[in-house]
Request: fold
Amino acid sequence: MNALLCFHFWNTSVEIIICEFFIRFLSFVLLFLEKVGILNLEGGSVNETPIVRIQRASIKNFRNVESGDIRFPCNYGEDIFAPKADVLGIYGQNGSGKTTFIDALEILKTLLSGQKVGAELSDCISYGQEKAELQFEFSILKLNEGNVVYKRRLIYSAVLSKDAIDETVKCATTRTDSAKTAWMKPIFACTHQSEDAVFSPQVRLESLFGSKQNAKINELRVIKLLCQKEHRSFLFSPEFLKMLHDVAQEHDDKVEPLFELSNFANTSFFVILNRNNGLISLDAAIPVNFRTETAGGTFALPIDQPVTIPNRFLEIIQQVIATISTVLCEIVPGAQLSLVELGMELMENGEQGTKIQLARELSCANGKLHLLPLKYESEGIKKIISVLHLLIAAYNSPSITLAIDELDSGIYEYLLGELLRI
Reply:
């Protein structure tokens, strides 16, 4: 069995490097993937990017849910753009659609990230229906030194059929330096009714890429067909965003929302599915979900034996484990974690690596420190370790959306309350 580990770095000015590598319990196999970053993060500070929040969600004919609507707590406030975090808990009987909604959020993250939808599109559609519909409303707040630059209301709709994904993005932008009234209008729409049509409105297509028969339009048609074949979003695909970035003007309120949603999905939107906890249940590894100012993603550490990691990732892992340990001690007294370094080792690809193992520190009666492998800890503690860093990040940033399926599973009620109090 392989455990997935991926880092997403977003502090580069033009390029976002996405590294994915798989842990095999006797060795590390490294696979490096470089993707072109579309959004310049203005020096790399995540705090300078707009605050993006999901306000409402609606799903129809998606898996076992015929129709459902959810308003997030921020949507009930007097100011839906208020930059403060909140918590939404969904409870109900088995089969009522709780996990289905989390799956819908996972599909949303996948589409906005420009990645392939993992499941077959037909598996997302309720039995006897021809299509499933997902609609999400967002608020986007841009601040500059505490002052509001602009506010956006944005609606993203995706219609999933058996062989295509049709998308529509509507947006209304209000700028503080303009007295114009903002109206919700479609800024991009992509359907698959015609092979020749790329996206609408046609006026925007021609203003950005020229007439119907030039090389750029033909390239866009190829990208659209490729995305359809691979079950990816066309509007948020890296290929389309790269072309859009090259031709769009700066501060274009009809174009910037696509980059803001893409950046949100890649840096501030996390969905933890219950099935991802299988490694913990099997006592194989702990998938640690994390998010720092410079990187985010998941790394998995074997529970019962050491593993060798590249030295360039060691500092990030040390930082994440130290943060988790500090907060964990406040929730569970004495639950001090230690990332034990067991020496240097030359890796299979010739790179310098460090052998590490995650353990819990225990004080013996004689005052000596004893290290206990995490395989002897309860499943609940392991699950808390897995999600704690993202809970800390969500507390410190209102732009982070963190969805966890069955958070209460395997965790004592008191500890669950302490987690939510974070």
In short: Residues 1-47 have pLDDT under 50 and may be disordered. The chain has nine helices and 17 strands. The radius of gyration is 23 Å. Residues 311-331 form the longest helix (21 residues).
